[in-house]
Write a structure and sequence with these properties.
By secondary structure, this protein is an alpha/beta fold. The chain has helices spanning about 20-35, 45-50, 55-60, 80-90, 105-115, 125-140, 155-165, 190-210, 210-215, 245-255, 285-305, 310-340, 345-370, 380-385, 390-405, 405-410; strands at about 10-15, 35-45, 65-75, 95-100, 145, 175-180, 185, 185-190, 230, 265-270. It is about 50% helix and about 10% strand. One of its GO terms (molecular function) is transferase activity.
């Protein structure tokens, strides 16, 4: 039986009837006449050489309703940027590649750094932030989707379902979060969401008492999904983390800025697989270990802004509560896997829980010792206040890069 249950305080849009992608896209073409649509793709250059992104671009070539695709390119030298321009040139939609490591964008970034209004840490958050700025600077789109570039099971139906809630003229959603089952190759994946985020949120409820924010966060079926969509006006005043707390930070900003009935989540794929991070048991600055620390710090900071007080004793209680709840979840997921003919390694699951428990203590202590830490990137409203012509300059830098380095494509054509 299809799932239609509404859990929590955020609207869930299900995949009950298995509508065809052609039917969805037919409606989206009509919606695009009133609300032009765009897509943001934050990418590392290495993903152009991986198995996923080529397939994603092939699917995007068939999408009829997109007006624009904005690609943020990280860790690329000049030759690699030239290759990226060729790689994405097959897209029929208007598209631009932001060469984040190029001299023009780096010069602009240095000026913003001097004003104290630029991301301080390299990573996906910084990439997404500049893509959002370019969307405000140069794009006419009103509804925007964002998804990762390492989705091995990508199908264009994912994009259609992701953008539909913020594109429909009669829907009032400002933001939509994608969710999906994390199973692939006969295994249950998604360890950080399953074994850290959900039991940690339940632990906060136990230790601090239930709050509207905790109920809101616990309503999301897959809070760490890198796929979401939004209306253009969301971009002006959103403040996002530049570290692994990006997804939690985005959800927290939506909670701060909008009523619950302006937000939703949608089932976008029956199967989903992507590049997996190492657990990194021995290195807290890498892999899932660093991810767990950044996510936990993001939750501590958000709860503190709501008046919650944390002490060493509180954090110890939180860690102990988390450990018990997370171990119970290991058994739950193991039973779920067996009933569905999937595999789940209890030993590896419990090793992950032990590491996450240690990192909760580390993140909590870091939060107590660094009360003035400001990991959020300033909103674009603030950036414009500090540098009034920033949008014009950002647009010019991207266009000049494109004109200078895409000449070889025109000659080849």
């Amino acid at each position: 039986m299809a799932d239609f249950h509404q859990n929590g305080i955020v609207t869930t849009l299900h995949n009950i009837s298995q509508r065809s992608v052609a039917e969805l896209e037919g409606e989206l073409v009509q919606f695009a006449q009133e609300r032009p649509m765009g897509l943001i793709l934050p990418s590392l250059f290495s993903e152009l050489e991986g198995p996923a992104l080529g397939n994603i671009v092939n699917h995007l070539q068939q999408v009829p309703y997109l007006d624009e695709v904005i690609i943020g390119l990280d860790r690329a030298d000049e030759q690699q940027y030239r290759h990226a321009l060729t790689f994405f040139d097959k897209l029929p939609q208007k598209h631009r590649v932001l060469w984040n490591d190029g001299p023009r964008l780096r010069a602009l970034d240095s000026e913003l750094q001097a004003l104290g209004v630029a991301p301080k840490e390299l990573g996906k958050g910084r990439n997404v932030w500049y893509c959002m700025g370019y969307t405000l600077a140069a794009s006419k789109v009103e509804s925007i989707a964002l998804h990762d570039c390492d989705i091995l099971t990508y199908d264009r139906a994912l994009l259609a379902r992701l953008i539909y809630p913020v594109a429909h003229p009669r829907f009032n959603y400002e933001f939509c979060k994608g969710f999906y089952a994390r199973t692939a190759a006969g295994k249950i994946n998604g360890r950080v969401s399953r074994l850290l985020v959900t039991p940690l949120l339940r632990s906060f409820k136990t230790v601090l008492g239930s709050t509207d924010y905790l109920e809101y966060m616990d309503s999301f079926r897959y809070p760490l999904a890198g796929e979401f969509s939004f209306r253009r006006d969301v971009l002006n005043d959103i403040r996002i983390p530049s570290d692994w707390g990006l997804e939690i930070g985005v959800l927290s900003e939506m909670y701060r800025n909008y009523a619950h009935n302006r937000l939703c989540q949608v089932d976008i794929a029956q199967t989903y697989d992507h590049k997996h991070q190492d657990l990194s048991l021995e290195d807290r600055n890498a892999g899932l270990s660093k991810m767990s620390v950044d996510i936990t710090k993001a939750l501590f900071r958000k709860l503190a802004t709501q008046g919650e007080t944390f002490t060493t004793e509180t954090i110890r209680s939180l860690k102990a509560t988390y450990y018990r709840i997370a171990l119970d979840f290991v058994e739950t997921y193991h039973n779920d896997a067996l009933m569905n003919g999937l595999s789940l390694d209890i030993h590896q699951e419990e090793k992950a829980v032990e590491m996450f428990a240690q990192n909760i203590m580390h993140a909590g202590q870091h939060f107590l010792e660094h009360p003035m830490e400001a990991p959020f990137v300033p909103s674009w409203n603030r950036v414009v206040s500090a540098m009034p012509d920033v949008f014009a300059r950002l647009r010019e830098a991207v266009e000049l890069d494109n004109q200078q380095f895409s000449a070889h494509i025109r000659k080849a054509g």
